[in-house]
């Protein structure tokens, strides 16, 4: 019973923290660029504003256009139930594991691409095709990079993997771990639309990838999609943090360990957010034909991670 | 003492060439006569081995060791080296190279010869490797003696492919050392060949198999076995002819020596079939590529290179055919050395007369230069395996070995390919020998008769080996076969 | 497999060396190749020190110093000088494109795992787990030489191949005998200098470092 409550609480905490995370990164980017920047909680005001606005839908759009924001939001929320944010293992782990997580994320991406094509605008189609190019190479890498850890733990259940890593801290500097981390980090940048793959702050449509698909959205639809994107960022950050450096995750379900876990999670998210903000300030956006090269590197890193954990056992 | 007489002359010649600036022909002459000393030492060593010495050693920790196989090779290498040095540019004949080029040539060719001699006399397989790598570098520096687009292209391909091949051979050496060390710990003389040979049955077969593949690919690149032969036509085509003689005869023999040394070790560990099959496969491939490429060739030096590839294939084939095959292969090596070196020396004169390396520019050779043309024709006939030349005897021995080892299809295919080569060579030869004399070519040999006479030496060797098998050679080859099996 | 510190560190070092080799397949500019080679040689020299320490072998300290001086200081300096003289040309179109070559290199690493299985099974040294990575580095160097068009890239690929062999020797046998190692260093130095001479000639005669231009000699 406690476990189920904790799960739901975990999902709610994720929902609550996600926009703050995006705002945090935005704030730090501003400061690094010498501006004052809007405080991190302004994103919540943005969301509230969007929920109040009118929804305008193109005449050519079909049911996919209206359905997608709900789908994307719900799949991303479902993923937060499956990954070890605060505690591991959790009751819902029996429902799904690494592969289900990857497929849920991919389902959201797929429908978002369809929704980009649906209204029949040129930018939407362009964004959708670019997104699919990136997703084609990035999705296998997500699975592969965590698969290396899964081989060590003997199961693709994410909670089990976390428990294994906590039990054997020496394994954290093994090449399998480090390579997997590097691979997942690069994929995270690609999947969440961060520099150097895609600039989230751009206003030039021809340079957009993720934003181009959502150009037609307005009102509550846009709010849901933005929230889902923020949740996606939080999911990837927590995967990076809790899969590869799981110390702080509550193994037992005592109030003490749970509160420590929450604090640890916030700290890790903030740390990763800082790193991403730094990277975004330092790196320039890659030309589109160079993105597959970067993703191929991350794929090879993930492959090396799997082979070295498989054969160095 | 004999070892010093063998190895030191070429080093001294190189030093002499470095010390004296600008180049004078006295350097070339002294180099040539110094190499006779080395040849004498080599014959002496061979004589000792034939008379019953199993191996002659020299130096701290038996650094140098000459057994029957090494003895055969030092004789071959010094023999070709002496002829090459006598026929090198810069000994008084007219030459198209300037002084600095001649100086560079004489420095590096002597270093090349000394590195090859070190490779065949070194006891330690790693030192053999070091010497072979050094020989790659030294020879690569002479190919572009005249800097043209083609010669730079040829030398770049040669040094890149050669160095990569040699590096892979080193990887194979490291793998065997790894196996040895795993078995017996790090011993000082672990890589000495006799030690490896004795320990071989105890080594692990899978590791040695992997090691042999690397070594065959690596040293095979140096020997010019297909599919690693791509540098050969370019390098032979663009280098000065005397270097071509040395590379096609001596370097090739040294590379095959390295392969054979390792084959002996690996066979003791894994059994003969593995290496035999590999050698048969690569040998047949080389014969095929060599023979078929002659059909399309346009440059007569490249034609000689493809002939080298074909004969490399034949020797490889022989090495994979048991004791009879090894005997035949080594006899073929001796014959090929004589024939190829003679061809390259002749080619120098032809190139000087016709000012071109293309077959279509050479016409009416029999009328323009009867002696050179005649010898060239004789050489081609020898290379395609006609009697009464030695190559005929060794090829017969090879095919006999093949049929006795129950490989009829293999031998049949090889024969068919040799037939193709025969037709293409004769066709190209006919184009060159007969026909009207081209415009502007004066009739008459380029060199005086005293320069042509020495070319008869390899010819005499070829004919002698074609008519009879002298006892010393037979006993030497038999001793080698005993080492192998 | 015991995961002692020595084993972990050797696996870590070899992975870094392999990654530096893969960087050669990813990047385009000659500067990044020289950087990658320098860092790779630095990691390998550090590994020589580490193996010397854990394996109680003084000779490896000397070898580490030689390696450092030759491959981290001297050769990159010559490469930079050469680059300045012939003009750094970017590798714009290798024979197989970059994502494909990266995936091929991944496959080659898998192949080297398969090939070195007997080696790992036979060896008793704690460093044996990283042997596949060294073999993978050899294959990656070979891939660079075969698929790249610029002569200088091929030279760096060859140097990476040599590094891979040195790593293989170190992981498998704690280094080969010193005399031979010296001979190998000498050869590498000479080979590199000779290649340098040729690169210079290529630039002078062809005005381009593209080996596609070296296609005059046919039949």
SSE layout and pairings?
The complex is a heterotrimer of chains A (313), B (485) and C (219).
Chain A: H1 2-32, H2 42-52, H3 63-82, H4 98-117, H5 122-153, H6 158-167, H7 175-191, H8 210-213, H9 219-244, H10 255-282, H11 291-311
Helix pairs in contact in A: 1-3, 1-9, 1-10, 2-9, 3-4, 3-9, 4-5, 5-6, 5-7, 5-11, 7-9, 7-11, 9-10
Chain B: H1 2-19, H2 25-50, E1 56-58, E2 64-66, H3 68-87, H4 99-121, H5 125-142, H6 149-184, H7 193-199, H8 205-223, H9 231-238, H10 241-270, H11 272-293, H12 300-319, H13 322-354, H14 365-368, H15 370-383, H16 390-404, H17 408-433, H18 449-452, H19 456-467, H20 471-484
Antiparallel strand pairs in B: 1-2
Helix pairs in contact in B: 1-2, 1-4, 2-3, 2-20, 3-4, 3-10, 3-13, 3-20, 4-5, 4-10, 5-6, 5-10, 6-8, 6-9, 7-10, 8-10, 8-11, 9-10, 9-12, 10-11, 10-12, 10-13, 11-12, 11-17, 12-13, 13-15, 13-16, 13-19, 13-20, 15-17, 16-19
Chain C: H1 5-26, H2 30-54, H3 59-86, H4 98-115, H5 117-122, H6 131-147, H7 151-173, H8 178-206
């Amino acid at each position: 019973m406690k476990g189920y409550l904790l799960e739901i609480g975990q999902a709610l905490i994720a929902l609550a923290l996600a926009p703050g995370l995006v705002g945090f990164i935005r704030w730090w980017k501003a400061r690094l660029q010498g501006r004052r920047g809007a405080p991190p909680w302004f994103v919540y005001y943005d969301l509230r504003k969007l929920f109040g606005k009118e929804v305008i839908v193109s005449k050519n759009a079909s049911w996919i256009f209206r359905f997608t924001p709900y789908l994307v939001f719900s799949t991303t929320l479902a993923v937060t139930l499956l990954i070890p944010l605060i505690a591991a293992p959790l009751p819902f782990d029996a429902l799904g594991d690494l592969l289900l997580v990857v497929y849920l994320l991919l389902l959201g991406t797929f429908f978002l691409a369809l929704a980009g094509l649906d209204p029949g605008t040129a930018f939407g189609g362009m964004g959708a095709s670019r997104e699919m190019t990136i997703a084609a190479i990035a999705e296998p890498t997500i699975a592969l990079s965590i698969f290396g850890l899964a081989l060590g733990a003997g199961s693709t259940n994410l909670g089990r993997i976390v428990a294994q890593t906590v039990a054997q801290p020496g394994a954290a500097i093994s090449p399998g771990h480090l390579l997997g981390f590097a691979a997942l980090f690069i994929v995270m940048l690609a999947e969440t639309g961060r520099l150097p793959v895609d600039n989230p702050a751009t206003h030039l449509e021809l340079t957009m990838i993720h934003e181009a698909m959502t150009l037609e959205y307005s009102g509550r639809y846009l709010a849901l999609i933005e929230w889902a994107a923020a949740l996606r960022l939080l999911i990837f950050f927590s995967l990076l943090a809790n899969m590869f450096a799981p110390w702080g995750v509550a193994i037992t379900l005592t109030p003490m360990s749970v509160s420590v876990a929450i604090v640890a999670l916030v700290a890790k998210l903030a740390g990763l957010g800082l790193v991403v903000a730094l990277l975004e300030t330092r790196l320039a956006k890659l030309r589109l034909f160079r993105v597959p090269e970067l993703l191929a590197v991350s794929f090879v890193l993930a492959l090396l991670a799997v082979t070295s954990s498989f054969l160095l056992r | 003492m004999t070892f010093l007489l063998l190895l030191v002359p070429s080093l001294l010649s190189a030093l002499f060439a470095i010390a004296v600036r600008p180049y004078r022909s006295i350097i070339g002459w002294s180099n040539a006569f110094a190499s006779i000393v080395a040849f004498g030492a080599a014959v002496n060593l061979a004589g000792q081995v034939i008379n019953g010495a199993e191996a002659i050693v020299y130096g701290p920790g038996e650094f140098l060791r000459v057994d029957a196989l090494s003895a055969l090779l030092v004789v071959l290498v010094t023999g070709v080296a002496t002829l090459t040095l006598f026929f090198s540019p810069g000994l008084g004949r007219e030459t198209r190279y300037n002084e600095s080029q001649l100086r560079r040539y004489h420095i590096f060719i002597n270093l090349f010869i000394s590195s090859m001699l070190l490779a065949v006399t070194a006891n330690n397989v790693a030192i053999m490797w070091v010497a072979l790598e050094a020989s790659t570098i030294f020879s690569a520096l002479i190919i572009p003696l005249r800097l043209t687009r083609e010669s730079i292209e040829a030398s770049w391909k040669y040094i890149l492919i050669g160095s990569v091949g040699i590096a892979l051979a080193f990887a194979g050496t490291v793998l065997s050392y790894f196996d040895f060390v795993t078995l017996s710990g790090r011993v000082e003389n672990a890589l000495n060949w006799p030690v490896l040979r004795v320990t071989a049955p105890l080594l692990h077969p899978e590791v040695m198999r992997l090691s042999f593949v690397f070594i065959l690919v690596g040293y095979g690149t140096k020997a010019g076995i297909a599919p690693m032969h791509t540098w050969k036509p370019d390098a032979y085509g663009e280098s000065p002819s005397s270097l071509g003689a040395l590379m096609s005869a001596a370097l090739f023999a040294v590379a095959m020596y390295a392969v054979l040394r390792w084959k002996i070790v690996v066979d003791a560990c894994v059994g003969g079939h593995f290496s035999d099959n590999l050698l048969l496969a690569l040998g047949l491939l080389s014969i095929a590529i060599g023979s078929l490429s002659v059909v399309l060739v346009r440059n007569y030096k490249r034609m000689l290179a493809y002939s080298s590839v074909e004969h490399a294939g034949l020797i490889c084939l022989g090495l994979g055919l048991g004791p009879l095959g090894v005997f035949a292969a080594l006899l073929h090596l001796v014959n090929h050395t004589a024939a190829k070196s003679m061809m390259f020396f002749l080619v120098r004169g032809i190139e000087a007369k016709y000012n071109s390396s293309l077959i279509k520019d050479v016409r009416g050779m029999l009328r323009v230069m009867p002696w050179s043309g005649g010898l060239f024709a004789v050489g081609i006939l020898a290379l395609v395996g006609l009697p009464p030349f030695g190559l005929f005897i060794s090829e017969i021995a090879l095919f006999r070995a093949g049929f006795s080892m129950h490989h009829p299809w293999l031998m049949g295919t090889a024969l068919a390919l040799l037939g193709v080569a025969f037709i293409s060579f004769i066709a190209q030869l006919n184009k060159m020998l007969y026909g009207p004399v081209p415009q502007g070519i004066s009739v008459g040999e380029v060199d005086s008769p005293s320069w042509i006479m020495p070319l008869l030496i390899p010819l005499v060797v070829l004919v002698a080996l074609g008519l009879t098998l002298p006892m010393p050679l037979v006993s030497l080859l038999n001793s080698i076969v005993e080492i192998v099996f | 497999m015991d995961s002692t510190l020595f084993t972990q560190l050797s696996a870590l070092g070899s992975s870094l060396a392999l990654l530096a080799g893969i960087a050669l397949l990813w990047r385009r500019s000659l500067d990044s190749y020289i950087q990658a080679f320098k860092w790779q040689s630095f990691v390998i020299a550090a590994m020589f020190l580490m193996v010397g320490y854990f394996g109680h072998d003084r000779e490896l300290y000397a070898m580490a110093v030689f390696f450092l001086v030759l491959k981290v200081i001297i050769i990159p300096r010559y490469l930079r000088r050469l680059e300045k003289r012939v003009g750094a040309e970017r590798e714009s179109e290798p024979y197989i494109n970059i994502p494909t070559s990266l995936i091929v290199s991944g496959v080659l690493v898998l192949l080297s795992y398969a090939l070195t299985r007997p080696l790992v099974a036979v060896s008793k040294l704690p460093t044996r787990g990283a042997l596949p990575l060294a073999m993978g580095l050899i294959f990656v160097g070979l891939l660079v030489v075969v698929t790249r068009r610029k002569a200088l890239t091929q030279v760096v690929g060859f140097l990476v191949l040599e590094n891979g062999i040195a790593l293989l020797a170190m992981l498998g046998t704690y280094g080969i005998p010193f005399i031979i190692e010296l001979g190998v260093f000498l050869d590498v130095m000479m080979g590199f200098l000779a290649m340098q001479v040729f690169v210079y000639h290529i630039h002078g005669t062809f005005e381009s470092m593209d080996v596609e231009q070296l296609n005059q000699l046919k039949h």
